[in-house]
What we know:
CATH topology of the largest domain in chain B: Peroxisomal Thiolase, Chain A, domain 1
Distance between the termini of chain A: 21 Å
CATH topology of the largest domain in chain A: Peroxisomal Thiolase, Chain A, domain 1
Shape of chain A: globular
Structural class of chain A: alpha/beta
CATH class of the largest domain in chain B: Alpha Beta
CATH superfamily of the largest domain in chain B: Thiolase/Chalcone synthase
Order of helices and strands of chain A: EEHEEHHHEHHHEHEHEHEHEHEHHEEEE
Helix content of chain B: 25-40%
Largest sheet of chain A: 11 strands, mixed
Family (chain A): Belongs to the thiolase-like superfamily. Beta-ketoacyl-ACP synthases family.
Subcellular location (chain A): Cytoplasm
Largest sheet of chain B: 11 strands, mixed
Number of domains of chain B: 2
CATH architecture of the largest domain in chain B: 3-Layer(aba) Sandwich
Oligomer: heterodimer
Helix content of chain A: 25-40%
Number of helices of chain B: 12
Order of helices and strands of chain B: EEHEEHHEHHEHEHEHEHEHEHHEE
Number of domains of chain A: 2
Largest interface: A-B, 85 and 85 residues
CATH superfamily of the largest domain in chain A: Thiolase/Chalcone synthase
Organism (chain A): Solihabitans fulvus
Protein name (chain A): 3-oxoacyl-[acyl-carrier-protein] synthase 1
Strand content of chain A: 15-25%
Catalytic activity (chain A): (3Z)-decenoyl-[ACP] + malonyl-[ACP] + H(+) = 3-oxo-(5Z)-dodecenoyl-[ACP] + holo-[ACP] + CO2; a fatty acyl-[ACP] + malonyl-[ACP] + H(+) = a 3-oxoacyl-[ACP] + holo-[ACP] + CO2
Amino acid sequence: MNRRVVITGLGPVSSIGIGAREFSAALRAGRSGISPIASFDAAGFPHYMAGEVPAFDPKSILQRISPDAWGRTSQFAASAARLAVEDSGIDPTELSAARAGSSIGTTGGESQVLERLTGDSLTVGFAGVDRELARQVPASRLAVAVNRELGLTGEAITLSTACSASNYALGYAYDQIHTGDLDYMIAGGADSVGRWSHAGFYRLGALAEKACAPFDRDRSGIITGEGGAALFLESLESATARGARVYAEVLGYGLNCDANHMVAPDPVSIAQCMRLAHRNAGIKADEVDYICAHGTGTPANDAVEAKAAVEVFGERPPPISSIKSMLGHTMGAASGFSAIASVLGIAESFIPPTINFRNPDPQIPDIDPVPNVAREMTVNIAQVNGFAFGGNNAITIFGRYS
Amino acid sequence: MSTGAIAITGWGVLSSAGIGADEFARAVTAGRGSAADVSEMFEEPVPRQDAFALVDFKVRDYLGRKGTSFLDRSTSLAMVACGQALADTDLVVDDSNNERVGIALGTTAGSVKSTSDYSRDTFVQERPYLVNPLVFPNAVMNCAAGQSAIRYRLRGVNTTVAGGALAALSALRYARNLIGCGYADALLVGTTEEFSPQVAWATHFAMEAGGGDLAAGEGAAVFVVEDADAVREAGRRPDAEVLAIEVGLHVPADEATAGPETDFSESLAGCVVRALSRAGVEPGEVWAVASAENGMPLTDGFEDRAIRAVLGDGPVRLRVKEFTGESHSASGAFQVAALLARHRADPTLDGRVSVVTTRTSDGAIGAAVLRGWSRGVE
């Protein structure tokens, strides 16, 4: 069918804002969403900051499903989806009768539910845990929650490719509409903070103490974060026919695998993934105006990412900023938030900053991280980088619709 | 661009009924397979002493000691199944094409034991951060796909699909899309699920709630998937062509009262109809149905009603879980493998069409249509 695919609705549920308007304002202001951990007892952890979403009130957003029956990550996914649909202006009844589905990315799925069950089992044994909670563990429930919240009968697929999962989800959703298999898709990702991942990143030496400072000389790691990111995708014909506001067009994506190391990123493979994404999107590297970086703030990631960018774009890559400086690392939702930020940048002509930036790193190539202050500029084409454990690289490309 | 059928050109399987395609095929043909004593497998108590587990499975017996000592069970099972599948296909994978060969593996929630043990350590260790960094990747759901890519040097698209009972069909559908849209030439597609105390209890709770009595199982099955047209044009004979995979969600009319007992039969029947239509197959052509039935009377009844509504009483019913247990995401791949198993040694079934049906307790549904062939004489 080869239909053009556009984004007409955005649903961020994040530590810096809930809904497209709040999120956009926070990106422009360079606001930090990092606060002391409240969702679990962080006593005993040397590092206790995270990008939680304390303002998240699923009851105020969800209309069909009951939050009590779903884990926190499913609540994030379904709430983000509901906001994206509201933002798109489509009639929800019309949507639920259409060929519509969802693809949702995640790292941990409902692992915080499993964590609670595990904690409970220490006193009551597995035999004595809450059986209703045990039903909430499967990660497939993230996309299922989205469909059930919106009454969608099409495919509900949860892609658990860790920290690049939202880009995988966006790519798959794009294909579904591009090929004509489905007419509307919710794509994005969701994750929740938890003890196990906080501990794991700390022990890997990848957890910053107070702030995430991507590309900075003294960067020391990630801050764990959470939230839900959803984008509403439909064909250009459909958007035009209903007079919808088009934020941006999905031009294409690229996926590959390092097949080399479970946690260490590979600059050659990442550069290949960028070229693959450009080719699939039908663009040339020099047409990219802005790169929304994976930019975790770990010494390894940022060095590798900058090196790959120079390899692909030459000595002067386009501005490359990391919104993880504001949100922390929201894991499976991360590239979803990056996609929302980039799409807003295209629609509203700005690029978000890398906050907490003090000194350039002489050890990495000279890039423009958009230090600390958002920049007003025209963005015709944006590239969203997503990398993950397992060497799961995924890059999406968005363009201005004209 | 092709959006047509995909072909399965080789496969591997580890289940309590048999290890490897040939042994599994013999077990399925004979209807053989039973639960084993699992009382000595773990320190933690389990709800019952039997499970369809691979009690003696040790990854080093298959892959050697190097690089295998920290692997979780789910990943280990997947890696061995991937190796079996590559050995079973006539597709040659090397440095000249490995950028175009990927992996799509399905799961329920990854290695649940690894993730749960990680959480447990944060509660019981002297300091909450005293977890083992070497096994951190095991606690993340894409471990099996990532490790398999490293082991077999597959640099193409690497994806993990968390779909539970639907995961095998979702992964096949995902692979079909990648191949059809030109992102990959071939993929290892399958599912993996480990047995653990956590899974044993979750299965036990679900069985009690649904009035069933089936023990949990484990294992993995992996299929080498390629473009069916390309395989045919090369004069190669596949084990099967997957003609259609349709999935969807049964949305309860009223979420406030929705439970796992919501009648999904009409939605599933619609799914089977769509799959047959896309495959260009008449219901009367179907010789077998591999169902997800697991001994829970109500939900088995819904699935059975959907199958009979579309296909009547004619097709043979393969209830794979009877001899491989409730293996969650792995069960979906076992259903596909059981059909391939029946074809493998029986030329009288060459070219016949079969159907796979599945459903999750959350309303996800799926159906696939396969056309299979035997191995051996061309």
